[in-house]
TrEMBL record:
Keyword Transport: no
Residue ranges constituting the Aminotransferase class I/classII large domain according to the UniProt record: 65-363
Species the sequence originates in: Mucilaginibacter achroorhodeus
Oligomer and partners: Homodimer.
Cofactor(s) the protein needs: pyridoxal 5'-phosphate
Full protein name: Histidinol-phosphate aminotransferase
PTM sites of type N6-(pyridoxal phosphate)lysine: K228
Pathway: Amino-acid biosynthesis; L-histidine biosynthesis; L-histidine from 5-phospho-alpha-D-ribose 1-diphosphate: step 7/9; Lipid metabolism
Keywords, ordered alphabetically: Amino-acid biosynthesis, Aminotransferase, Histidine biosynthesis, Pyridoxal phosphate, Transferase
Taxon lineage: Bacteria, Pseudomonadati, Bacteroidota, Sphingobacteriia, Sphingobacteriales
Length: 368
């Protein structure tokens, strides 16, 4: 199917002649009227030595590191370090308890329950659907093409006056491929709503990040995370990059202390070790190439899809049988065989050389 579409097909506004015009018509009325919680730390400027404002335990914590004080509600130091790394002003950065919090806040800010809808493009990350269901927001599914790319014509047909968000995961989970950049820009330029580009795996990709396009598209939200390449999944810190106006809305809706002090402190330490992370990325990509070459020779492997992530999607003759065979031997992969367009597929994360060797040895036993 051709991706050549009329620009007007994507536009959901009232007059049919201009794209995104700002958040005025997108925000829920109750969010427009919301007065955010004002924490004790929000109510003064400058430095202080005595804090008697937040009903904290002044004596400390029963730990080596003291955690008796509430953390910075806006995570200033972490955002400043991310600003240096990402090349984007701190005011354009939101930090959440994982990217999942950012996803949920977008639903709560822009989607009226029982009225509005969002579009996802399966197969894709499952939390978009979960968040939609939690927030009672209708979900419209437009399947990717057989090449795992956007069906722009199908998206255009799905958009209506109540479509607020479109979620695009690139590189995509579980398929691993990057979504065609021109297609995403077509949506950004013509959709009268917010386009969310989830870049959880961007550090492994050959494509450049969409963060560089924030000044070009006021309706763009880019999600990233410290859980993957940065190896901080246990800290739960996700990032959203967007216009200052959108970030202000997200900060207004979030809980006052959504990122704890330990996570902020450890994240700052990790962000000082870019060279280590880059080394791991290079090693992961080499291991991915090695694993693909080895798996291609196994009789049960029908296809291995191109990947820009730290995992591969492998089409097999019997995904359930292989999955159970591996589980019985203490190796866990992800069975995606029941996901649309992923029939017969296993998603395999790239491990250490030792873990990958064990996987290969075990699969060779199955192959035999």
């Amino acid at each position: 199917m051709s991706n050549e579409i009329d620009q007007q097909q994507l536009y959901s506004g009232p007059d049919g002649n201009s794209p995104f015009r700002g958040l005025g018509g997108l925000l829920r009325q109750n969010i427009k009227n919301l007065t955010p919680y004002s924490s004790a730390r929000d109510e003064f400027q400058g430095e202080a030595s005595v804090f008697l404002d937040a009903n904290e335990n002044a004596y400390g914590s029963p730990l080596v590191q003291a955690y008796n004080r509430y953390p910075d509600p806006m995570q200033y130091q972490v955002k400043m370090r991310l600003s240096q790394i990402k090349g984007v002003p701190a005011r354009n950065i939101f930090l959440g308890n994982g990217s999942d919090e950012a996803i949920d806040i977008l639903f709560r800010s822009f989607c009226n329950p029982g009225v509005d809808n969002v579009i996802i493009v399966p197969p894709t990350y499952g939390m978009y659907e979960v968040s939609a269901n939690i927030n009672d927001v209708k979900l419209k599914r437009v399947l990717l093409t057989e090449e795992y790319q956007l069906n722009l014509e199908g998206i255009a047909e799905a958009i209506d006056a109540n479509t607020k968000l479109i979620f695009i995961c690139s590189p995509n989970n579980p398929t691993g491929n990057s979504i065609n950049r021109d297609d995403i820009e077509t949506l950004l330029a013509n959709f009268n709503g917010i386009v969310v580009v989830d870049e959880a795996y961007i550090n492994y990709s050959r494509q450049k990040t969409f963060i560089q396009e924030l000044t070009e598209y006021a309706n763009l939200v880019v999600l990233q995370t410290l859980s993957k390449a940065w190896g901080l999944a246990g800290l739960r810190m996700g990032m959203a990059f967007a216009s200052e106006e959108i970030i202000e809305v997200m900060n207004k809706v979030k809980p006052p202390y959504n990122i704890n002090e330990a996570s902020q402190t450890l994240a700052l330490q990790a962000l000082a070790n870019i060279e280590q992370v880059n080394t791991w990325i290079k090693e992961t990509l080499q291991q991915r190439d090695n694993l693909v070459l080895t798996l291609k020779d196994m009789a049960f492997v029908l296809d291995i899809y191109p990947s820009d992530a730290n995992f591969i999607l492998v089409k097999t003759t019997d995904a359930n049988s292989i999955y159970n065979f591996l589980v019985e031997r203490g190796i866990i992969v992800r069975n995606r065989s029941k996901v649309e367009l992923c029939e017969g597929c296993l998603r395999i994360t790239i491990g250490t050389p030792q873990e990958n060797d064990k996987l290969i040895e075990t699969l060779q036993q199955y192959n035999a």
